[in-house]
Amino acid sequence: MTKYVNSQFIHTNFLIDMEAPFTWYDCDGQWDIYPGSCPFTAVCLSPVSCEEYQCTDVRTSTLDRYSSCPPVTNGSTLPGWGLCSCPVTVVNPITGSCGEALLNNDELWFNGTNGRIAFPDFMGVYPTIACAPSSAFESFPKNVSGVLAMSSSPHALPMNLYGVIQRSFALCLPTSASSPGVLILGSSPYYLDSHSDVDVRSFLSYTPLLNNIQDTFGYYVGVNTIVIRKRSINVPPNATTKISTLVPYTTLRTDIYKQVVGRFSKVTKRLQPTKPVAPFGLCFKIFTNGTRAGLKVPDIDFGLGNGMKWSVSTANSMKRMRQDVWCLAFVDGGVTSEHVIVLGTFQMEDNFLLFDVVNSSLGFSSSLLNKGTSCASFNFTGV
Asked: Are 330 and 233 in contact (CB under 8 A)?
């Protein structure tokens, strides 16, 4: 991700958050007292006044979500500016702790693409953005100093896409941290392999997105059943299934988790059980070459509300914890889990997801590995 501040492009790594109401990041700079006052060699920021409508709008829209956090008050008058700043509440997605950030008039820039290759040219987007101190990111992964809001909030990035960039985005997470995945704004064709004429959209099935569940800005889908080798595990009616980029492994409420583990144990009797490795409850001793190439287990199919099926194959269901120990990569979320199912990032790896915000629709591919490609195949050589 690239920020454009005072005629300077600054690259920043962001944590993608599907529930954050607005984007916030580590802003290390000085305030621009008036247009043109910032030295060209400095990084200057333009604050939102506490008297502007954006300040009231953001605070109002997050009031219920952050009700457990201390209330914010208008910031002090900035030197030479004459108006108060606009502190807003932020919640650390890693620790859950409350903090404050200052709303800022800012912009984000993305590399352009024709769906086949990334270009060095940039396109600007202007969502609501806030500046937080460096200390707010101490718990974040290394070199990550921002939260990119990709939620359904009116202040998040998707709702601020206009013109030729339609309000939709595609997300494809890689299997390895050393390989790049891709986040693409808009609904252009998607060619993960630049030498292929196959648009990834031809692989997709679609299901409705359920927004505004429990007054959150996250994305939800309806899951009716979980099927393992023709045996169905029923999911309670009206149960919520959340898509999360913050949870590493899919979490199931205890009653559902026990049924999944029980059924999976029965259909994998040929595998040798071994002592579970946290956070998982079912593990096997499997002698392979250290990869999943020699390992094959039955698919776990999520039956969606409109009759579609999201298949979780071996690559997204089995996690290698030690050289010869592999575990079923689902986690017990507890008896009183807020959501019956939370789809985690491990189950999203090498799955192409297309979020159509306007039509409240989710396109999903299931594993791209079964189709001869992966999320790491997108061509970034043009950047």
From this structure: no
